Amino acid sequence: IGKGVLASRRPSSAPQPRTKPLMNDANRNLLLRIASAAVLVPPLVFLILWQRHEGFAIAVHLAAALALLEFYGIALAETAWPTRILAALGGAALSSTIYWCPHGPALVILMMALTVGLATLELLTFKDIKKAADHLALFGFGLLYVPLLLTPLALLKRLPEGSDWLFLVFTITFFSDTGAYFAGRFLGRKK
Q1: Would the pTM count as exceeding 0.85?
Q2: Of 64, 36, 37, 44, which is closest to residue 157 (Cα–Cα)?
């Protein structure tokens, strides 16, 4: 009896079969997307259905700032974070200006102030004109790319049938993004 118990406790020299992890990166990514949608979609639907357009506009301005922070974190990772935050706040201000006072010189003045301010910060930080120019070009691209593409969503809400148009835009975007995600996941090559 004792010999059999000891023999069963000895480690086996035979190779153990590898078990597949329950959660791989692709499944983790999908779970993150589902969780994000579960948290963000209900307030978004509420803001779209709400009669007043101001709440949705403020949400778009905040989304512009967050999207710019993410863009600058990727494109300008070596730039100091206060400069990236300042540029993201400038993008939210740009989005707000486009929405709240689209006529008049406010938009031009804001763009000039952001350009001069960011150029000054970059020159003080790097002291290299070429690197500062490269970074300023990326800051400018981000300021034109993100707020100028997100703010029309808030402007759509102002239209008489604005909520319907927004649901159409978000539905098309959802199905396009979901289709591209699953097509890439199932038809894409393995790395």
Answers
A1: no
A2: 44
